[in-house]
Each structure stands twice: as structure tokens, then as C-alpha cells.
Design brief:
Number of strands: 0
Largest sheet: none
Radius of gyration: 18 Å
Structural class: mainly alpha
Order of helices and strands: HHHHHHHHHH
Strand content: under 5%
């Protein structure tokens, strides 16, 4: 019964994600090329998760985290990360130098460490320990660094045109990649304090 209930929650989360994706496709303010560059990784992850759902089902905790992060990228893709309205308002209201949606996004992406811990615990010989947490933290940072390399490569290939600048969202900050990694690190470390929630879900699923 619990498994059936979990499945209903998972399909509901997928339904919400698809609604947001459809919304993001409707006249994206930054153009379809920026939208494609921003949302493609998330769409590929969704396809992978759906295709493997019956063979390897994650906990609801992990699916909720993935849902939030995917929606985050869809919103960023629709507006471009440097032009998300709420954070533009925050920028103007507080007299900030930049739109901080990108920073906020990298901070939240630190929660991905929880998903990685689940995969490590279920697919490797690793047990619940600080070592496993550290390995998951390193993998999370490696994924973040790989994405920054992709952004750098797109800047070189795209010759820093408007589409490339919207995709990068640097907003004139030469240390943008370093800040992104720093916020990802902080978000990941803070997320490790919530691993007990994952452990409880894993115990229930056994």
C-alpha cells in the first residue's frame, strides 16, 4: 500500500514538472536557443528517471529534490537566469548589483548530494558513514565543475554572443564560476544535515 502511495506521489511530481516544462516552452523571454541550453540536461535526466523507474526507483525524498531542481532550471530557461522577475525585483528593491537567481539556484543544487548518497548506498558497497557523505559531496562538486566547464566551452564556441551571455548569466562578474561553486559547496554541506530524512525513507522501503 505504501509503495502504491509513493507511486502516486511520484507521478504527481512528474505531472507538475511536465506542466512547468510546457509553460517554459511558451514564448521564452530569452529565446528558444537559451531555453534549450538551460533545460536540455534536466530533460535528459527526466527521460533517464522515467525509463528506469520500474527497475530502479528512488525514494520520494530524492524525487522531491529532483523535482525542485528541475523546475528551477525550467524557470531559469524561460527567463534566463539573469532575468528571473522575482530576483530582478529583489535586486532593484535592495539596490543589489546583480540578479541572484543563479546564485540561489546553485545553492539549492547542493541538495543533489542527498540523491547521490542514496545511489551510493543502494548501488555500491558503501554504508552510512561520513566517508560516504564525503564521496557524495565530491561527486556533487565534480558535477558542478563539469557544468561550469560546459559553460566555458559554450562561451568559446559561441564567441560570446547574446545567446552565450544569456546562458552563462555572468552579469559582468569574472568570478561567476567560482561563486557558483562556492554556493554549491555551501548548499551541499548544509544538505548533509538532512541525511536522516533519507535514511528513514530507505528503511521504510526495505
Amino acid at each position: 500500500m505504501s509503495r502504491k502511495k509513493d507511486s502516486s506521489i511520484h507521478f504527481f511530481l512528474l505531472f507538475v514538472v511536465m506542466l512547468v516544462l510546457i509553460w517554459s516552452l511558451i514564448k521564452p523571454e530569452a529565446g528558444y536557443m537559451v531555453l534549450l541550453m538551460e533545460v536540455l540536461p534536466s530533460v535528459l535526466v527526466l527521460i533517464l528517471l522515467v525509463s528506469t523507474y520500474n527497475h530502479f526507483r528512488l525514494t520520494t525524498v530524492s524525487y522531491v529534490i529532483i523535482t525542485l531542481l528541475v523546475i528551477l532550471t525550467f524557470i531559469g530557461g524561460h527567463y534566463s537566469y539573469s532575468k528571473v522577475p522575482l530576483f530582478s525585483w529583489i535586486k532593484d528593491y535592495f539596490g543589489l548589483q546583480r540578479n541572484h537567481y543563479d546564485r540561489f539556484g546553485h545553492f539549492l543544487k547542493g541538495a543533489m548530494v542527498i540523491v547521490i548518497i542514496e545511489i551510493l548506498l543502494r548501488k555500491t558497497a558503501l554504508l552510512k558513514s561520513k566517508t560516504t557523505n564525503f564521496i557524495a559531496l565530491c561527486i556533487t562538486l565534480a558535477i558542478g565543475a563539469f557544468y561550469e566547464i560546459i559553460e566555458w566551452a559554450s562561451a568559446k564556441i559561441g564567441k560570446e554572443g547574446k545567446v552565450t551571455k544569456d546562458f552563462l548569466g555572468m552579469q559582468g562578474d569574472i568570478w561567476d564560476a567560482q561563486w557558483d561553486m562556492a554556493f554549491l559547496l555551501v548548499g551541499s554541506i548544509l544538505s548533509l544535515f538532512f541525511t536522516k530524512i533519507l535514511y528513514k525513507e530507505l528503511e521504510k522501503s526495505r
